[in-house]
Amino acid sequence: MARTPARHFLQIPGPTNVPDRVLRAIDNPTIDHRGPEFERLAHELFAGLKSIFKSTDPAVIFPASGSGAWEAALVNTLSPGDRVQMTGTGQFAALWSRIAGRLGIGVELMPGDWHHGADPAEVEVRLAADRRGKIKAVCIVHNETSTGVASRIAEVRKAIDRAKHPAFLMVDTISSLGRWSAAMTNGASM
Q: What is the pLDDT of residues 128-158, one digit of tens each?
């Protein structure tokens, strides 16, 4: 197989390209996870997580794949028989929905065309119609890597509030948390 002399640049919605500075860091020798250098690094990372989450409380790192994070979020906040509202924005939303179903959680899927993010107005209409509060959570993939579609999370939150519904908002930010956090810090609306 012939090698291209330049660095390959992937131009699809996902996976995300790895910045050169990260590639250079990966090229360094592994540090001892029980040594002082790792301890310093861990303290720095945990402090940074507080900033990202805008919290003074300690952050917890959960080592898992994205699907492991979905499962952990669902089983630690909901029970079998609970209902969630999800929007079909792409493959990752579909996978999260399937995991919820396998856990015995009822999924009310708002069909999507995979070209647009979650519709805040539709979220509001559906929650307003749920007068008994059977929907326990609204689950949305913020940045749908498979399609490149992003949902407007701040607007979805406002829609839930306008509906005066007790459902909580669960957001998959697996591929967008750092970017989203930086945008929120700079006053942007995503």
A: 999 999 999 999 999 988 788 899 999 999 9
d(CA 32, CA 8) in angstroms, rounded, equals: 31
CA dist., res. 137 & res. 156, Å (int) = 12
Give the pLDDT confidence of 5-52 residue by residue, as tens digits. Answer: 666 655 555 556 678 888 888 888 888 989 999 999 999 988 888 887
Cα separation, 26 vs 124, in Å, equals 45
* pTM of structure: 0.73
Rounded Cα–Cα distance for residues 136 and 77 (Å): 9
- CA 112: distance to chain centroid? 18
Yes or no: say if 83 and 108 are a contact pair by the CB < 8 Å rule: yes
C-alpha–C-alpha distance, residues 190 and 188, integer Å: 6
Each domain of the chain, given as residue ranges in start order, spans 66-185
What CATH number is given for 66-185 in this structure?
Answer: 3.40.640.10
Tokens standing for residue 12? 């699809």
Q: Pick from 104, 96, 55: which is nearest to 79 by CA?
A: 104
How far is CA 153 from its chain centroid?
11
- How long, in residues, is the chain? 190
